[in-house]
């Protein structure tokens, strides 16, 4: 993996008492950024920890020394150093004077996207998600070079803050043959995106940091015109994107739908549900959690539908080992927590706290691997075996939301599904299941166990769920 960082050009803009310690630092190749704030000591940030570079506090003259050696700041308070990938961001006071600088080191890392090379060859639009500083811009810079040079595509980069292709009129060599369109003001990025399609006939458009509704709408328009998109957005995962009203249109948008009685009964859901409004502008989503660990969603539309329906999704985890070998694993999301914790059901469904429980009822509570029966007279404890996986239950003519309420209350590793093909167990009313020969036949063919209750009471539901978990409350 080849790295080009032009670090000396960034150090040249710093005063001597900041530059000299960095030039001699043993970890200078891992430097992330240098922070310079008025009246404070200069600070260097590395992946493992920050370090002070001097005992002296910064003065106005020190800040002025740096500002005179960099380009002018744009509307987003960012500037650069010509022919480099470094980014300098400023902090201003109320009068508009600069009182702080963040000097981010820009690096071109060749070979960083070998882990997703096969996805580029599919010619589908790709959305990259991750928190700030995780390496999204570095990834799309390398993607632009691979698409333009090795796959011979017509690539146009929409470079809002000159962070992808560097400062100045001549793009940095790290983007290869790809062309770069600069944006005069950040709020005009969506217009430049449409202009690129209309005027320059691209096959691929690269967009960094999609952050507004107008930009999301422009991305959707570009996708509808048949142009491949590669974009980045802030967010840890697809689930966080769904909850972001500004960017949810990138994955098709969300709408509330009211179902008829029969359809709601068939699905085993409430009458008012959330559904995806339209097709996603991106077919593939990549979550970057660190530089060697990426989570891939190869069918974004399917994943969004599963998340909205409350299903646990499959995640394709790709990582690079120390030997430069690429490893691909396909696992259920939060599977490691599922095996280790009885609280797994809350973790995947994002329930913040269990619902309240009526203490007058004789119900069981969980503590680690133990069942404790509440009783006004005594307290009895029963051990139960640790579950190695989540149990999927199909409810027949039983309100699934009531089951979910108690599952969440007790933090049981059970998932209620309205699709019988996904279920391990059927739970239903005894009188109705006796009459449904088709359901019993399906259960026999799929070797599924059937648990029945006589009525819809909460006590009956809790006791059935306990039986399913092979947990028996100790009788007095």
List keywords for this structure.
26 strands; disordered C terminus; 3 domains; nine-stranded mixed β-sheet; Rossmann fold; 476 residues; six-stranded antiparallel β-sheet; 16 helices; elongated; alpha/beta; Beta-Lactamase
Folded structure, characterized:
The structure is a single chain. This protein is α/β, with parallel strands linked by helices and 476 residues long. It has three domains: 103 residues, Beta-Lactamase (2-Layer Sandwich); 226 residues, Rossmann fold; 117 residues, Rossmann fold (3-Layer(aba) Sandwich), CATH 3.40.50. The protein has a nine-stranded mixed beta sheet, with helices on both faces. A six-stranded antiparallel beta sheet has the order 4-3-2-7-6-5, with no helix packed on it. Strand 20 and strand 21 form a beta hairpin. The longest helix is centred in the N-terminal third of the chain and has 15 residues. The chain is elongated and about 85 Å long. The C terminus is likely disordered. InterPro entries: AAA+_ATPase, P-loop_NTPase, PTPase_dom, Spore_III_AA_AAA+_ATPase. Pfam families: PTPase, Spore_III_AA. GO terms for molecular function: ATP binding.
